[in-house]
Every structure is written in C-alpha cells, then in structure tokens.
Design goal:
The structure is a single chain. The chain is mostly helical. It contains 3 helices and 2 strands; from the N terminus they run ββααα. The protein has helices at about 15-55, 55-75, 80-100; strands at about 1-5, 10. It has a two-stranded antiparallel sheet. A hairpin with a 4-residue loop joins β1 and β2. α1 (about 15-55) packs antiparallel against α2 and α1 (about 15-55) runs parallel beside α3. It starts with a strand and ends in a 12-residue tail after the last helix.
Length: about 110
C-alpha cells in the first residue's frame, strides 16, 4: 500500500479490504496532520522572531495567528489540548514580557 503523493508504504499487515482502507485513511490523515503541525510551528517561530526583534505591533498580529492555529490544532486533536495550551501560554508570556520591557532605543553617539 503506497501513498501516491508521498511515495510512502503503510506498515500494516493487511488481511482484509477494510484493513487496506483503514491504512489508506490513516496515511491521508497523517499527511493532513503533518501540514497543520508544520504550519503551527512556522506561526510560532515567526511570532517569536518578531517579539525578539522588538516589532511589537507586528508581533501581536503574529501571536494572534499562532494562537488561532494552536486552538484549531487542539480542537482537531492534532495536538493534545494541554500541549496547545502550554505553547499558547509560553508565547503570550514572551509577548507580555516584551511589551512590559520594550527594548531601549539606541543612544546617540557623541561627536568627537
């Protein structure tokens, strides 16, 4: 049993047609979940970069996007609910810390 899109082989001992179908469904579900999980990681990374660079307005938008993606992944059982909640909490904690302590503007250099 192979997945035409990824060229993978299902590692299931197929003794019946229902087992074959279950293997096909499992591969489709695995591919769909992988793409969603990857998008969640990308959104989190993008938000963290913006937080650490000090672009707080863009960071807020990116955090909202990441939180939304985490919520959806948690609802669909792609991530465990507590895992999604923990990641959201950590991301919000970083954003709130950056908002409370904005990076200081560089001091102008004295002309010699």
């Amino acid at each position: 049993m192979t997945n035409p899109s990824a060229g993978k082989t299902a590692h299931v001992a197929k003794k019946s047609t229902s087992a074959e179908k279950a293997a096909r469904v499992s591969i489709k579900k695995q591919d769909r979940n992988r793409s969603i999980r990857s998008q969640v990681k990308t959104d989190i990374t993008r938000a963290e970069k913006l937080i650490f660079t000090g672009d707080l307005e863009a960071a807020r938008k990116a955090v909202d996007t990441a939180v939304s993606a985490l919520d959806k992944a948690g609802e669909k059982k792609i991530l465990y609910a507590n895992n999604a909640a923990r990641r959201k909490s950590r991301l919000m904690k970083k954003l709130n810390k950056a908002v409370a302590n904005p990076p200081a503007a560089p001091k102008p250099e004295k002309a010699a």
